[in-house]
Amino acid sequence: MTRPALLSLDEALPQLLAHAQPLPGVQSVSTFEADGRVLAQDVTSALQVPPQDNSSMDGYAVRVADCVQAGALLRVTQRIPAGSHGTPLGAGEAARIFTGAPIPEGADAVVMQEDCEAVEPSQVKVLKRVPIGQWIRRSGEDVTRGAKVLAAGDRLTPASLGLAASIGLAQLQVAPRPRVALFSTGDELVMPGDVAPDAMPPGAIYNSNRFFLRAMLQRLGCDVTDLGIVPDQREATLQALRDAASHHDLILTSGGVSVGEEDHIKPAVQALGTLNLWQLAIKPGKPFAYGQVNRTDRASGACHFMGLPGNPVSSFVTFLLLVRPFVLALQGVRQTEIARTELTAHFDWPRADKRREFLRVRRNARGGLDLFANQSSGVLTSAVWGDGVVDNPAGQTIAPGDTVSFISFTEWLA
Ligand code: AMP
Ligand code: MG
Known about the structure:
This protein is α/β, with parallel strands linked by helices. It contains 8 helices and 27 strands.
């Protein structure tokens, strides 16, 4: 085990991500099922979207040369609903056309029906002058044939599923889901439902980390095996780690990574592989462990191990800062950095900390940020009341009116 040293997040993160090689293998999934998955291959279009020039209005397809003056009278010689196609349009002719229907050969504009007057069933008067190309959606204006529309490493969104479908893809090739085993440690932990609030023994607390860690892993595309609370015994811990390692890509634990704490996770991970305990210069969330558990059976290589601090807000924040980019990188996502917005503090933070802080804040109706009064690492209410954090550099005080760097939970948890 290496000796704990105070590391900045900017030093720690690249070191950590250097271990997160994309998992091998590609999975073919239905486009319907691919939301949130990460593309394993570039997606290239085999066709133009739209496939042909088509009308963006209900109206009449015309030849502009016939409509140089308002009031031109044209013969309606065909009708083209969406899903059908017309025949070439002759001089002096108009085609009744509907939104999405292909423009017939010879036509070079569409007049919307509101700008026309049906004179008799087979004749139409065009009330205005018509510019060339009016109300025509051009073939390929969305996607051209051969274009790369989505790239390997892209995380799919509802809109990208629609785009993939628009070029005819019913299946997508995506990265496998990271298989993550989740453990909680701590003899004080009790599961909600097992013990009623009025029957809680002295010193006991409910296991809250398990709930948000599992939910966040699932949102990030992981397949979670929830192993609950590992009994605080050497053999049980070794057995649980050994079993988990052979069937998972990552073992994630919360609690028991503080310096000097007596628990069985740390020595067990060391016995089965390697463990680095890091003291990160961040608040909340100082202690963090990364290691590997060797696989003893037929499976080769090692399983990643990450140990988060037990304090709920520390656990929550270190997950977002470190585990989130790690599990995305395992899926081949290249850009894992989270977007920030510059906003105005409407609060005072007069005491600078030696560590970089992630303050729970909330946007207010005046476009600024309010601070949650209690920033203790045990106060999970701050993460529910807040809709994000201010990333406050080490040694920095904040006065009302200062510009600060805001990270939104909505994006961070997506
Ligand atoms: P530790 O990191 O194990 O020293 O725990 C730090 C604090 O977090 C202690 O007050 C623990 O009781 C608390 N804690 C640890 N694990 C959990 C958990 N799963 N849910 C809620 N609180 C926890
Ligand atoms: Mg503990």
